[in-house]
# Entry
Amino acid sequence: MPALPAAPAHVPRHIAIIMDGNGRWAEQKGLPRHKGHEAGARMVRTITEECARIGVQRLTLYAFSAENWKRPKREIDFLMKLLKRYLAGERPSLMKNGIRFAAIGRLHELSPEVLAELEKTKAVTRENPKMTMTLALNYGGRGEIVDAARAFAGDALRRGKVPELTEDEFARYLYDPAAAEVDLLIRTGGDHRVSNFLLWEISYAELWFTKDYWPDFSVATLHAAIDDFARRERRFGGLAER
Ligand code: FPP
# Structure
């Protein structure tokens, strides 16, 4: 077995990834698009395990956006089937690697079968201590902020008064308040946009893009992104330390 690569020196606490390019990866190989999604799901496992190994605390992956419902029904059905298969097949690896599973998005709009797999995976991995891996499913960043505003308004109505609202307090209404800061956002597939992903959470994230299609991503590319992240100076609006 080849030796595992050393972990990069400065590992971001929270990495988020827009896994783009599955379809183009398949097309360039003369394969049907669903083969690209299958290869993409295999890369999800590789990168999740590597992130846990090197000490990333949170990994959030954009697996299905609120806008992805516009795709042909056949592709959506395939992605949902793949997701169910992935979740059932992944539980042993999540347990072995100490990874807690979570999901964010308008999950109640997913099918009961997908929901059941999500719930089961969340339940069995609940106590795992090493890293939280979150799939964003039926997720949109603006929708998340609107859902948070609705939840806030609901609380205010119940209490009969509008409480003081700070950014930190508002963040408590997001889908996963503990994941409110992304350190490094990676996008594969060559486009330079954020596509409605984690809009609140990426306020101060470092952005990193690669032309590689998601199934061609690799542990080496992940390390390159992290090395680049470690060299950047994050000032959060302040001045550099001299
Ligand atoms: C973008 O590729 C990717 C998606 C729409 C979803 C991401 C899905 C996976 C990585 C596979 C399934 C994941 C799990 C966790 C089971 P695209 O189809 O937009 O590619 P294109 O831009 O080349 O058409």
